């Protein structure tokens, strides 16, 4: 793209270069002392969740209502959201014959204090709470705890609720392919390769559509490098599918939807999406690129937040959505969702950025909070990734690199290479020890 221009958020780059970013504090889920949890069920305590079935019209996110009560309420009482719904020690393997697993074998995927929506909870012992859940391939249950986060005592457990199709294909994210006229689309589902064939139906807007197959990846806890990613932070990430849409016509609008063909020949489809193909190399064009890092994720229902400042991530997300018609490419240059070994956060992040990533290429690079772990080849020998050591980042998002474990893009256009040079320079400047 010899004469191509690009527009970027220069201010973000300058600030990133001039300031060295230090530790962002603890992941909020790490504050829950899972190994100290005890059972203190109370006869008069309860917690009820409704509705029982979510996503009956294909929604991938819905609000639910909790009603709860405790005969001995406290300002330290809190509610944890667990998925899968069975979070007891019976589902956890022993470390060895002499060491028993904790009562809770997994951290909650989010939590909130019982008095958040009910300021008189301590006086009356009754409360309600509205939470937003996303489709994460399993059912949910809710637990009322006393004793605060550091000394949790299980007081009551709710009924289970689930999405109508927890396995549904969700959260598509585009990436520029290895060739200029190729777009890759990645998504998450609960369908393994023995359950269904992953595919994309796509074609030019208003024209004939075709089907393209997809490759499938998945992970086990052994794929992680350490705790909490291998222990209380582990959550099955499902199956990650990627299809490569090739021989695109320059600047043409394409429609697509992701789906699966079940063994009984039933087809399961997402809703329709669309994207614009890149221009022809050498073509004079305006390419508008947004570059940022350190965004994180946000809980719109007010649940636990990373260091209480990540509401800024939803502001960034909403601004990008608002400006989407003026954006051709996004680079998220590290510190993506600050999961730090709590894998449930990756689903929540991909759901948050879906309106952006499903419409324009969303290119990522690993930061210290995705990659760093001692003895794994990361630049810094600290534990900022929480045991992920780059595995989640390189699996959840496709990168057109020869080795996805080393996210250095190659064989790209001069514009692309120039942008990557800037990104690599900024990464070296901002990622902390």
TrEMBL record:
E.C. number(s) listed in UniProt: 3.1.3.2
Cofactor(s) the protein needs: Fe cation
UniProt main location, coarse: secreted
Domain Purple acid phosphatase N-terminal: 172-276
Keyword Amino-acid biosynthesis tagged: no
Reactions catalysed: a phosphate monoester + H2O = an alcohol + phosphate
UniProt xrefs under InterPro entries: Calcineurin-like_PHP, Fn3_PAP, Metallo-depent_PP-like, PAPs_N, Purple_acid_Pase-like_N
Subcellular compartments: Secreted
Domain called Purple acid phosphatase Fn3-like: residue spans: 47-165
Signal peptide positions on this chain: 1-23
Domain Calcineurin-like phosphoesterase residue range list: 288-383
Keywords from the named record: Hydrolase, Secreted, Signal, Zinc
Assigned GO CC terms: extracellular region
Superkingdom of the source species: Eukaryota
Group of enzyme by EC: hydrolase
Protein name: Purple acid phosphatase
Source species of the chain: Phaseolus vulgaris
